[in-house]
Amino acid sequence: xxxxxxxxxxxxxxxxxxxxxxxxxxxxxxxxxxxxxxxxxxxxxxxxxxxxxxxxxxxxxxxxxxxxxxxxxxxxxxxxxxxxxxxxxxxxxxxxxxxxxxxxxxxxxx
Length: 110
Fold this sequence. Notes:
The protein is an alpha+beta fold. The protein has two domains: 1-50, no CATH class; 51-110, no CATH class. The chain has three helices and five strands; from the N terminus they run E-E-H-E-H-E-E-H. Strands 1-2-3 form a three-stranded antiparallel β-sheet. Strands 4-5 form a two-stranded antiparallel sheet. It is globular and about 35 Å long.
C-alpha cells in the first residue's frame, strides 16, 4: 500500500502481521530470559519513507497522538551508528502500545 498526500507518494506500508508463536518463544528465552514483559514486537508493521523529512513528520504525529504510548525507539540512521551491526540495514524502529478505551477494557494497554 502507498500513503499519498496531494498525489505524491509519502511512504509505502509493508504489512508484516503477527510474529509467529515459535519465533516469539525463541526470542522470549534467548533474548529476554523468559521475561515476557520485554517482548514488545508481537504485531509488526513497516513504513518505508523516501526522505527523512517524511519520516520525521510521521514520528512527530505518532508522538503527538494521545492514544499512543511510545515504549522504545531504536535509531540506526543516527550519526555514529555502526552499520556493520545491522548488515548495512538502516531504520528507525518504534515500539508502541495503543491506549484506548478498548485496549484498557481488554487489559492490553500496557
